[in-house]
Design brief:
2 strands; 484 residues; globular; two-stranded antiparallel sheet
């Protein structure tokens, strides 16, 4: 374990994020928000001071950083834990939320792209705080460590292990020979789509602040919005359709966009996971729209738009809302609830189990039935043109098992609060799935402030575990991880 290298690298990433935090500091100056200026200045100075001290202490024997797989797990986990701590300080200084644990929960929700909130009146917060809150969505969507690897190669550390520990999905696409170039390509695509959405939202009548913060929530598949009523506050069908399109794009594997730019359209059209993702969205939207229209909830066109918006919002784990879906028929609500366990594609900004894992588990079940009928049959796990070996399938099965075990244990712990069964289960499922909205007491326009203060730490842990896909965090709790 190269513990000094881990802390030295942490110091560098703190310097990097301190520089990024100058953006919301500038927003605070623009809006003359004195408390926010103090909060961001204090945080930036704390990050700079701690970083420089660590760099000085590790200078002598650790000029060249070496990071193993175990080191990368520790580094990535500590990065998310400590950045959430520093990121919560401006919220605490400005008294955005009553307690530091709630502030920590809010920023962990942002970085993990969960979008769950403990705020009851979002619009009363300072503009700079809302900007920072939504900016954490955007940074967490593609990954803080991935961005760090992309733009700061000067530290002489190979980023393969770091990116692998933070990236989502059972397999990791290496688009270019060097992982740094892959990280740069992914972030360039992410940035390009973000700029395009901002422009389209500006054309829809939103001001630059709202267009940027909504884009942060959309592209990060995170769901923080600058309004209490989320996207519904804008009362614009155009804005909703823009969000529908970009939420869908954020839920797809970003490596596909790289292939599109390379002119590899055939590979994109034959991608089994993307095709299944599109089919699920289309089928779920049609079922929900039929249910809404049949019950007389809305017109056919509104039923299609509302269904598409919420289906994509739930499956991509974005968490935006345009209306109160708690008033929908139970069938439509059940569709949304089921989608919370699906999630986006591997290599996307979305959370959840991921479409590819659902597909592989379905194939495993089908093969098990085939084996019962034909014991000597030779079966393979194949999704689209991609085949999955036994090791990958075993890893997927283990992940799915641990995913639901975590939900069950988490629900049991949260049940100590005395909330109803649906609220407890839904809140835990949305935290580990990084969704942000659920059913019951934390449905539309409801916040996590209904829970006692101690649960903020439980929910924060669940969001961290969900975003880093269980094993990166859980590995730290095993004896073998710390064994020499």
């Amino acid at each position: 374990m190269n513990i000094f290298s881990v802390f030295r690298l942490l110091a560098f990433i703190f310097l990097f994020v301190a520089l990024i935090m100058c953006v919301p500091l500038f927003i605070a100056y623009q809006y003359q928000e004195v408390l926010s200026i103090s909060g961001f200045m204090l945080t930036i100075l704390m990050m700079l001071a701690s970083s420089l001290i660590v760099i000085a202490l590790t200078q002598k024997n650790h000029k060249h950083i070496k990071i193993s797989v175990r080191d990368s797990y520790l580094f990535v986990t500590l990065t998310w834990l400590l950045l959430s701590f520093f990121g919560a300080i401006p919220l605490h200084v400005t008294k955005t939320l009553p307690t530091f644990s709630m502030c920590y929960f809010e920023i962990m929700s942002g970085f993990s792209t969960t979008g769950a909130t403990a705020m009851n009146d979002i619009e009363s917060a300072f503009h700079s705080i809302l900007f920072w809150r939504n900016m954490t969505n955007w940074l967490g969507g593609m990954g803080i460590v991935v961005l760090f690897v992309a733009v700061l190669p000067a530290f002489g550390v190979k980023g393969t292990n770091l990116v692998g520990a933070e990236s989502v999905g059972p397999t990791k696409d290496k688009l270019t020979p060097k992982i740094r170039h892959t990280a740069m390509a992914l972030w360039a695509i992410y940035l390009g789509l973000s700029v395009l959405e901002v422009i389209l939202l500006l054309l829809g009548g939103l001001d630059l602040f709202d267009a940027t913060t909504v884009t942060f929530g959309t592209m990060g598949a995170a769901g923080f919005a600058p309004k209490n009523a989320s996207i519904g506050a804008f009362n614009s069908k155009y804005v909703e359709w823009v969000c529908i399109i970009f939420m869908f794009l954020a839920g797809a594997n970003f490596s596909l966009y790289f292939k599109v730019l390379k002119g590899q359209f055939k590979k994109v059209s034959q991608d089994g996971e993307f095709r299944l993702y599109a089919k699920i969205v289309l089928f779920a939207t049609l079922l929900s729209a039929i249910s809404l229209y049949a019950k007389g909830i809305s017109s056919l066109s509104d039923s299609i738009r509302d269904s598409a918006f919420h289906v994509i919002s739930f499956i991509t784990t974005t968490g935006f809302t345009s209306e109160n879906y708690n008033n929908w028929p139970i069938f439509s609500q059940m569709i949304l609830f089921v989608l919370t366990f699906v999630g986006g594609c591997a290599g996307s900004a979305g959370g959840g189990l991921k479409v590819i894992r659902i597909a592989v588990m379905g194939k495993v079940g089908n093969n098990a039935i085939t084996k019962r009928i034909h014991p000597n049959a030779v079966t393979k796990i194949k999704v689209g043109n991609d085949s999955y070996n036994e090791e990958t399938v075993l890893s997927i099965c283990g992940f799915v098992g641990m995913y639901f075990i975590t939900i069950f244990i988490g629900s049991l712990v949260i049940s100590l609060t005395g909330q109803d069964l649906l609220t407890c289960f839904s809140s835990v499922a949305l935290c580990i799935g990084n969704i942000g909205i659920g059913l019951g007491g934390i449905g539309t326009n409801m916040s996590f402030s209904i829970f006692p203060n101690w649960t903020m730490w439980v929910f924060s842990f669940l969001m961290l575990v969900g975003r880093l896909e269980l094993f990166t965090v859980y590995a730290l709790f095993t004896r073998s991880f710390w064994r020499k």
